[in-house]
Amino acid sequence: MRRVPIVPTLVVALAVAAMVVLGLWQLLDRLPQKQAYLAQLAANPARPAIAFPHHPDESLLFRRTVADCRPPITIRRAGAGAAGFRLIATCSGALQVQLGTTHDPRLDVAWSGGRVGGYIAHAPDSRSLIQAAFDHRPQAMLLVADTPLAGLAPNARPDLDAVPNNHLAYAIQWFLFAGIAAIIYGLAVIRRNRTVVVKAIRR
């Protein structure tokens, strides 16, 4: 007699159901939320300029902004992909201003600060992916200057493609995992039953 093991089948069924639920959550909840968020960000550059926020606010990404950078000022480099390096000034009060980009890793610049206009973006994040997964603090923000400091190349304009939207891919992955788990378990049960039948015949 062919039998389906109850406990393993129940465990696998619960695991498959959980993966399907996660896929539906990504597809029906997280994806629409991200699409609405991206639509908001796409409209931000055309909205009126605001004072640079004192606290991180993801809804303000790409919004036009102005701020005063006061001494003391320190300037550091951060990777900028094909643009080379970003030069970022940290002003009194922790305001960060991206002054421009350069391909020269040894370029030193001096800036005494002042009134700056530009748009709001994410500051470089030194946390690893694992650290970011467990550290839920919002990523710091900086002001990307419209006019680069003398000797630097202009900063890139706001780029919506820089904001990840992987929820559809996550949903597909969870559905695939559920399907693969179900298929593998089904094949394992079939193989087990065949083995049981062969042993019974040999007896």
Describe the fold and architecture.
The protein contains three helices and seven strands. With 203 residues, the chain is an alpha/beta fold. Strands 1-2-6-7-5-4-3 form a seven-stranded mixed sheet, with no helix packed on it. A hairpin with a 5-residue loop joins strand 4 and strand 5 (96-102). Helix 1 (6-43) runs antiparallel to helix 3. The longest helix is centred in the first third of the chain and has 38 residues, at 6-43. It is elongated, with a radius of gyration of 27 Å.
Write out key terms for the chains shown.
20% strand; 7 strands; 203 residues; alpha/beta; single chain; elongated; 7-stranded mixed sheet
Quick take:
The protein has helices at residues 6-43, 129-134, 167-202; strands at residues 50-51, 64-69, 74-79, 85-90, 96-102, 114-122, 141-145. With 203 residues, it is of the alpha/beta class.
Q: Could you spell the SSE succession in H and E letters?
A: HEEEEEEHEH
The coarse overall form would be elongated
Helical residues, percent = 25-40%
What about the largest sheet?
7 strands, mixed
How far the N terminus sits from the C terminus, by CA atoms, comes to 14 Å
Unreliable spans are none
DSSP summary: helix tally: 3
Number of strands: 7
Tell me the radius of gyration.
27 Å
Classification by helices and strands = alpha/beta
Tell me the fraction of residues in β-strands, as a range.
15-25%
Mean pLDDT: 89
Going across the major beta sheet, what is the strand order? 1-2-6-7-5-4-3
SSE order and pairing:
Layout: H1 6-43, E1 50-51, E2 64-69, E3 74-79, E4 85-90, E5 96-102, E6 114-122, H2 129-134, E7 141-145, H3 167-202
Parallel strand pairs: 1-2, 5-7
Antiparallel strand pairs: 2-6, 3-4, 4-5, 6-7
Helix pairs in contact: 1-3
